[in-house]
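Dear Dr. H.,

I hope your travels went smoothly. While you were away I took the liberty of generating a structure for the chain from your last submission, since the lab meeting agenda had it listed for discussion. I wanted you to have the full record in hand beforehand rather than looking at slides cold. The sequence, exactly as received, is reproduced here:
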Amino acid sequence: MPDSQNRILGKGKYLIGFMLLLFASVACAAFGMFSSEDFDIARREVLLRRLGHEILLQSGDSTSRVPPVKKISENEYRIGFEHELTFLPGSLVNITRKVLKDHPLANDYVVKVLNTGNSSVVYGFAISENKKDDIITCIGRKQPLARYELNIEFKPTVISTAKKGYLLGSLPFLTLVGFIFLRAVKTRKALPAAQSAGVFTLGSVSFDAKNRQLTVNDKTTDLTGTENRLLLIFASSPNETIARSRLQKEIWEDEGVIVGRSLDMFISKLRKKLEGDQHIKIIVIRGKGYKLQISS
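The corresponding predicted structure, in token form, is as follows:
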């Protein structure tokens, strides 16, 4: 196999490995972020049950249970109680702060106490990470005995959401880049294992560079040394533009012979020998050189 082809395949393998590693790294980062946040959300829901428990103890109830916490939306929850109770707003604020103070997803939230009978809001307050933005009123007025529900809405984690968007957005991009690159590499190395023995399959054409033979539709034709070297360059880079200057240098100038129109003559001879397969042609790329075009 020519050194240039070895370099192409070597670079291809390296870049494929790099793309796979990059894709895996982003996927792992996304998985790690989502797993960590899922854990924090589950822990937050457990803390809300603890909050319900502490409110019952504050009201003097140590026997009734806390019903399952209802998830109203992604960041909104409701805590119910089995029996009627009464509470002091100031105590409710302090208990809520104490239970939720160290949770990473509970820095900003709004609490509303609802009357279960008519869903009216009997009391509410807002806690912010920036203490000066807290909204707390009427903390000294004891609320009458009634059936209450506690509605807690947390502020969405904007930074976390943005990170999710970047990660999720990057995965399709990396997939697209990987697909494009893999296709490019595949085009370059889309040569069967037999190529390692100097045999190229180009469409329905078989080119045996070692024995200087070209087989088209079961008809074998011998190639001259120059024709063989020329076709070998094309066969090593199918569907790629080969500069005219490169062809002249690698075929003639390296041997100390400078040519003019001889290249066109040998291109013409190769075209005639490839005429048996309409899907393979040597075409002119104006101002650049030639291309061995293989169509399906």
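Two observations you may find useful: The radius of gyration is 38 Å. Residues 3-58 form the longest helix (56 residues).

With kind regards,
E. W.
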